[in-house]
Amino acid sequence: MSKRRMIVTPRVIGRQTVLIIWSLVQLFPLYWMLTFSLKENSEIFGSNIIGLPHKWLWSNYTQALGAGNMLQYFMNSLFVTLMTILITVLAATLATYALTRMVWRGRKITMSIFLLGITIPIHAVILPVFLVLSKLKMVNSYQALIIPYSAFALSMAIMICASFMVSIPRELEEAACLDGCNLLGVFWHVILPMMRPALATLSIFIFLQAWNELMFAVIFISDSKYRTITVGIQNLSGSFTTDWGPIGAALVIATFPVLIAYAFFSRKIQEGLVAGALKG
After folding, report:
1. How much is the pLDDT for 131?
2. Contacts 24+ apart (CB under 8 A), 137-142
3. What does pTM read for this prediction?
């Protein structure tokens, strides 16, 4: 079988050149952040702004993880984010299954009420949420972040799951029922496996929202034991003098896990978005 040969034309060369330049522009901030995290202040602000460090200060990472307590903040953010993903995905898939596959009075109104949550900005309800958490004595705890994050991600999660779930043929559920599956068995063995692309898309969206959120984390958490990594980076800035190298190291610690997660799940995310657009 003959291989297809690409004809090199000026148009192809120009297009490839533009794409290469655009890729370098997109990658430059990551390069700058990484080199920034390994420099001292004199290089960052004067003699060597964009070049490689003259002296590679890996101690910036040691200082950020140790004195800056970034390791604990990182683990707090990871725990809060994973719990938010777990709770939201479980609640959204169960709610969507009831709203799209079961027939009961008021389900369309209930779906509309859930979707109305998308129109409410998360930071517009800081005061009432804080008062509720105070009454329940949940301030300064992991629940103070996990519950609001999950609640505000639920509307978007139901919308994504609904657009995908309505496309699953009902004949598969009927066949599973004939094989002896009950309602929960159909959901667990038929619906969830077919929704993997949508769940991957949903998980990365929730991950980005929970991992990068700052306002709730600042207001609801004052105990350093429960602080997240975004608050930790903010606290690294001193009142009078600032050593920017460890701050750059903290930014790398906070940013690169998000990029790595997206790199692993990017194909599933694209499949989920395309499938939802075509099937919805």
Report:
1. 92
2. 139/220, 139/221, 139/222, 140/220, 140/221, 140/222, 140/223, 140/226, 141/226, 142/76, 142/79, 142/80, 142/83, 142/226
3. 0.82
pLDDT digits (tens, 9 = 90+) for 62-101: 888 887 788 899 999 999 999 999 999 999 999 998 888 8
The CA distance from 234 to 89, in Å, is 30
Q: Other CB atoms closer than 10 Å to residue 170's CB: what's the count?
A: 8
Task: Please give the average per-residue pLDDT across 263-267, as a whole number.
Answer: 71
Select the CATH number that applies to the domain covering 68-279 from these four: 1.10.260.40, 3.40.50.300, 1.10.3720.10, 3.30.70.260: 1.10.3720.10
Contact by Cβ (8 Å): 161, 96: yes
Q: Which segments of 102-239 does DSSP mark as H helices, in order? A: 107-116, 126-135, 143-165, 170-178, 183-186, 192-194, 196-212, 215-220, 229-235
Q: What digits encode the pLDDT tens for the residues 11-21? A: 878 888 999 99
Are residues 156 and 182 in contact, defined by beta-carbon separation less than 8 angstroms?
A: no
Query: String of b and e for 191-200 (b: at least 16 CB within 10 Å)?
Result: beeebebbbb
